[in-house]
Automatic annotation (TrEMBL):
PANTHER family: EXSB FAMILY PROTEIN, NAD_GMP SYNTHASE DOMAIN-CONTAINING PROTEIN. Pfam families: HAD. The lineage of its organism: Bacteria, Bacillati, Actinomycetota, Actinomycetes, Propionibacteriales. It comes from the Bacteria. This is Uncharacterized protein. SUPFAM superfamilies: Adenine nucleotide alpha hydrolases-like, HAD-like. It comes from Nocardioides lianchengensis. InterPro entries: HAD-like_sf, HAD_sf, Ni-pincer_cofactor_biosynth, PGP-like_dom2, Rossmann-like_a/b/a_fold.
Length: 476
């Protein structure tokens, strides 16, 4: 298994009033109703200009000390009828929550508001949150943030900054409350945004930057690596990052050559690796000699990766390289059935992209920024992934699939085709193309099917559902 702990899952805390929702109008209506009952003319505009402090503190200047607790109870009782349906989500709030979800993060709402009323707000505006914690204020929010593992806390008030800093979290402030940029910066906030409209882009950039920094730090600490290099986007970024962190003399790239690696993938992969100045090794692997691989059960990838690592681990040792690193990313680690990952871990391989928390989208974005030619390269799983589970994998079958895919690309010359799989289903063959290209014009479809038949297949069809990565797993 990995010698590094899994990265902590993302958890982002949000304040509620004036951060996620515009509470001021509803809050003012409740103050007016309370004042009417108590015979007190509250300065509503002044009291709602800087919402955030606890209600008792807001009422304190206007009521006798012994009347504040009862007034607070009455305020909270009046609140549902005066301040729920009239209070909207602030601009960007839903998108901010969705941005956290997009990164598989947890959403926490940590607020000084009475919990029952806070829940009414969340339900009314339709916020999807994992945790609501009410009646916590200032540094008191830190206990919740630490308990829930929040690394970011978003608020609008200087006291929200205090809570974030006390928790050791990154403080992100928005200017939708009453505090100014200068006040928030003086309080120690790390980031100031005009509103939550800016939060998704900020979060994307923050996570990419911190995760790439974590990748670099990890690789530096490793000292030297042999990268199990397929030529795809993941392993290409890993190789480039290793060269940046360690220098080319402490990095090598190894691509296992076998029947399952398409010929068309080999030269571009080698050219890219050589352009980085690293040693490029192309040892032969013999996964076809492993009965479990040929049998092509759902665990076929275990035997393939086991063969690859059984070749690369001693090779790395001979070269004096400390580790074998694979291009497994953070999405792969949560993608469900991935027996190949288990085989690599059992043989001591490291997965720096995964350990840094880098997702496939982040791999592509970082590659684009670095000018790597692989940044938008379509996923290119091995040829054996085209053969239905339970159908024996043989060199003949793999060669036939490769010929068929080459023929289909030739038949679609001039068509912007990104993804293609010719699936050998045993008695028939299915062709998966980008869904945006479907349905094909009748002439094109016939040309595609003719190319497949010319490669040696019989009954063939174009899958109307289009390309689906891992579609063979749908039968599992």
């Amino acid at each position: 298994m990995s010698d590094r702990p899994a990265p902590a899952p993302l958890a982002v805390g949000f304040d509620l009033d004036m951060t996620l929702i515009d509470t001021a109008p509803g809050f003012g209506d409740v103050l007016r109703a309370l004042g009417s009952e108590l015979g007190v003319d509250f300065p509503v505009e002044e009291m709602t200009a800087r919402l955030g402090p606890p209600l008792d503190l807001l009422l304190q200047p206007y009521l006798p000390e012994d009347a504040i607790a009862a007034a607070g109870d009455r305020f909270r009782a009046l609140y549902p009828d005066h301040a729920i349906t009239s209070v909207p989500a602030l601009a960007g709030a839903h998108d901010a929550i969705a941005a956290v979800r997009r990164h598989r993060g947890r959403v926490l709402v940590v607020t000084g508001k009475f919990p029952d009323n806070a829940r009414l707000h969340l339900d009314h505006v339709g916020f999807d949150v994992d945790l609501l914690e009410g009646w916590v204020w200032g540094v008191g929010k830190a206990d919740v943030l630490v308990r829930e593992g929040a690394s970011i806390y978003v608020g609008d008030h200087v006291h929200d900054v205090e809570g974030a800093l006390a928790a050791g979290a990154l403080s992100v402030s928005v200017l939708t409350g009453g505090c100014t940029r200068e006040e928030l910066l003086a309080a120690g906030t790390h980031v100031v945004l005009d509103s939550l409209l800016e939060f998704p882009a900020w979060l994307d950039e923050h996570l990419l930057t911190t995760r790439m920094a974590a990748l670099e730090a990890d690789l530096r600490e490793r000292g030297s690596v042999l990268v199990a290099y397929s030529g795809g986007a993941d392993s290409a970024l890993l190789l480039a990052a290793a060269v940046r962190a360690l220098g080319p003399e402490r990095v090598a790239a190894a691509t296992g050559y076998s029947h399952s690696l398409p010929q068309a993938e080999r030269d571009p992969a080698r050219d890219f690796a050589e352009s980085l100045g690293v040693r490029v090794l192309t040892p032969e692997t013999h996964e076809m000699d492993r009965e479990g691989y040929r049998a092509n059960g759902p665990d076929r990838c275990f035997f393939c990766k086991a063969e690859l690592l059984d070749v690369l681990v001693p090779l790395a040792a001979d070269l004096g390289l400390a580790h074998v690193a694979t291009g497994t990313n953070a999405d792969d680690a949560v993608a469900g059935f991935r027996p190949g990952i288990r085989a690599a871990a059992e043989r001591g391989a490291i997965a720096p992209l995964r350990d840094a928390g880098l997702t496939k989208a982040q791999v592509r974005e970082a590659s684009r920024r670095w000018g790597l030619p692989t940044w938008d390269k379509p996923a290119a799983a091995c040829l054996s992934s085209r053969v239905a589970y339970g159908v024996e994998v043989t060199p003949f079958r793999l060669g036939r699939v490769e010929r068929a895919e080459s023929g289909v690309r030739a038949a679609l010359a001039g068509v912007p085709l990104a993804n293609l799989r010719v699936r050998d289903l045993g008695e028939r063959v299915s062709v998966e193309l980008d869904a945006a290209l479907l349905p094909l014009a009748p002439g094109l479809e016939e040309a595609v099917l003719a190319a497949v038949r010319d490669a040696g297949f019989g009954a063939a069809e174009v899958d109307a559902r289009g390309f689906r990565s891992g579609s063979m797993n749908e039968s599992l």
